[in-house]
Amino acid sequence: MKTGYIDIPEKKWGIVVVYDFDTDYDYLDMLAIMRSFNMSKRNSEKAISILSNYNTGMAVSIDSLKMSAIFVSKATSPNEFWSTVNHELHHVNVAIIDYYGEPYDDEGAAYLQGYMMHQAVKVLGEPCNSY
Predict the structure, then answer these.
(1) Is 125 helix (H, G, I), strand (E, B) or coil?
(2) Domain assignments of the chain as residue spans, ordered by start
(3) In terms of C-beta density within 10 A (0-12 exposed, 13-18 middle, 19 or more buried), how is residue 37 classed?
């Protein structure tokens, strides 16, 4: 399992990125991360079951910590990997915008999405083992 961290200083928000997982130990660690975001055991186990498939992802946020986690499964190609990352970052974007009460159709939302994606590429690089 690999992890990365994306900091959004302007929003005082952090994102933990979890990817390239495939062992029982990885799933136990993921379960612990999900539970730390107040996910129920049942929902965490269901999420892990879904994430065991290729080209899937999940995002979870906790407002009180101003923190999100995204999980990105193994991908069938680099395009699928980055598409899933972008998709999950969109959910984080919505959580942040919602937390601050900003409009969804604001240009700021697009800039935030672009910033998060740029940071993801910098932090994760090209995760060759993910496909």
Answers:
(1) coil
(2) 2-130
(3) middle
86 residue type, one letter: N
Name the nearest CA neighbour of 69 among 13, 18, 7, 8: 18
Taking only the tens place, the pLDDT of each residue in 89-121 is: 999 999 999 999 988 887 889 999 999 999 999
Could you tell me the two tokens for 46? 């269901």
Are the C-beta atoms of residues 71 and 58 closer than 8 Å to each other? Answer: yes
* Per-residue three-class SS string for 24-62: HHHHHHHHHHHHHCCCCHHHHHHHHHHHCCCCCEEEEEE
**pTM to 2 decimals?**
0.92
Which residues pair with residue 7 across a beta bridge?
Answer: 14
Pull the structure tokens for residue 121.
């590429």
